């Protein structure tokens, strides 16, 4: 007996044709050739549909956010992840970057919503981290003035403009980093590069997707981007700006995302006597409390954190300056993060530890 199976003749590049009684399998239209990337323009990847500046992701380009994001001169960020078919990331532990498969692309767009004149939205750069066989590579794309394209550029540059944030008008000479600066913040042992943010402790939050709100890790599992062997209870950071959270947790979360990528073992500042990673900072000695500084920048600054005394503490001094030889973080900002400084100072003033 001859059996005929009817197939749809309608063509849609985003679907695989299946028999009519089965649901179509949606596939990602992202253009990816691991031997050819990074491309010369952002549009070549086909991450976004419609006007490029809308950053409206195609299927497979999954948005995500961090519980506490890194401060970058008040820039807003839109983050996405994409992976090839039939591969997934896997869980390592709560505080480590996920074990991503080859072909993963992490996509981070930096923009301001209130640029003068006219309170315009301005996208400045899109940073990609692409995992090849030899490791993570950087691809930075600088947006043109027309906001129609972003071009590959690892040389670094500055963009000067004014914007309003928290009802305060600010002037910034925003730094788009060069490749060497990317490596400084992202390097681990043997000068290999790793991402900073995508750890379970930072991703364990709800996100509003087009099909509803759900936990990000659960969404990654449903997308096939994460294997299902993830614990139910993850020791997570908190939103440092949420004043309903305990002050100590807010401070530890802020220092983790802004400082731990350098102040950890095998990182750029591993020689300094502090460890800011969230999983290590329950011991306040690792936060510098009653710890003498490695480098004396002022004899009056007796400890990295002098309990109850911000005038004698190194951390607020380094956070509250833009001088390149003093400021911390070393890279990634040209402005003072006033809200972050206020948080750290409030915490230091709350401490009553007696240094021996």
Automatic annotation (TrEMBL):
It comes from the Bacteria. InterPro entries: Multihaem_cyt_sf (IPR036280). This is Repeat protein (TIGR03806 family). It comes from Gaetbulibacter jejuensis.
